[in-house]
Please model this.
Amino acid sequence: MIQTAVNPISRLEDILAGSVNMELSQTTLILSYGMKSGRSIVKEFYGRDFQQTWQKLSRFYRRLPETDYLRIDLIVEEHRLSYLELIDLLGSIKRNNYIDFGLRFVGLKKRLLLKEELTANAVIVPDNKHKVGKNKPNLHIDFPNYRNYMQQKYGDRESSLKYIETAAIFSFKTKAFLLENDLLLPLKDYGNGNHFREIDLLDFSPQLDSVIEKGGNYLLNQLQADGSFTYGYFPCYGKIIPNYNAIRHFSSIYALLETGELLENQKMIQQALQGLVWGFDYLGINVADHFLIKEEINGVVEYKLGAQALAILAAAKYTQITGDERFFSKMKTLTQTIENLFLTAEDETVHVLDQDLAIKERFRIVYYDGEALFSMLRAYGLMKDPEMFALCQRLMDHFVENRYERYHDHWLSYAVNEFLLYEEKVEYYRFGVANALNKIDFMKQRDTAYPTMLELLVAAAKMMKKLAVYENRNQVMTDEAFLRGQDKIENVMEYRAYHELVTGTMFPELAMFFKEPIAIEYGFFARHDRFRMRIDDAEHFLSGLINYRQFMEGGI
Model:
């Protein structure tokens, strides 16, 4: 952060003047400003040199009313493209919204768009064959969206867009600053479109704490008065995601309780309780002497193993924090439901039942298995019910025997680490080590935020601490392999925590370009999936970051 004088813009003049690229034919400054209630306005200023351009910007700035957001970009690099070269460049980008350059069009009309404008207004979009995470997006200009935004920005209807094909086209990069609380925050280009405040890995804790606190408040703000959540947003146009998901409801309550516990925020804990009660009252149902968590979409009812599990987990977390045992009977009943309806005599899990309690899908997603074991272990830790632990033993042994470590699932990582609190075996440690280390290189190289990776790694790092003092450690791995594995897990874990902050946090410097910044600021997003912001995105980010923070403070 840069401490500034009374007028921070005057201080910025000196900083930017030293960054001017004299090889460019002109100096271009871009001022973005606005209120939290709506999309920021972006205005560019041109001049033959920096001094002339800065004077134009300064005169405009002095007439501005008070704003919530103020960001200034200086173009420091640009490359000329033909229209066909632009088409090829867009087509080469490997993920949606991974645009790391702005665009200028100079010809019949003069147009400029920061990369944040291109993505936040869906000016560059994938083709209709694109499936997130499955294939390349084949990005192209969406001309209706381009036309709409140009009308909003320049007041021009632009009935014809032929000028784009004949214009001189420039891709460009900028040096940027955000004015926040009378401080000038330098913005760093982290690649793939992420242009956020500088976060120093050597001084990481303050930024981490800030993101956890503000991200927790973001998730709390999604919790409505009745205890249900606003499920999520596609923020380009402030579109609310209309679906609902029982698993994500309870997992988000769990994350809210984790955050409330860390922050010692009783309001957050009490509001999470409202969400927990709402979940049991409106998503829970008694069917054939069993209590189940129901999912109903378009009139189709399903009962998912994961929903039963996360309801237990959220209730257990509330109980652990408060000592309030009101949900003991619910946890016991849900555990019995899992044993009676979702587990075969061979200890194989059943993932989804239909409304008649018949098997609909034996396997849907591996998450459900780890969720079930982890949640029941957490309940056992509170209730000390031997029948509950016997069920957990059956599941743990089934997962080990059937090599579930090949799934590299974060819930299984949580579960094995939890199980080792009560029973240590060589094969359990081997399972946990393989669950993490056999995919460690992929986790190190992954470019998306992918928050469940951090959750897996923190649980694995905690497990390695237990393994360090396990009497039969040499039967799990050699001393050399242990030290190498522990070091690799912790290094990649540290990197993933940092990577999440700079690739998935909706900092103000990005939120300001979307339709309703106040609704999304300091939430968490999936850039390559239309900046999707669901409650479970917030849940995974918060859980991973909180557990990372606790681990770094010595917790296991």
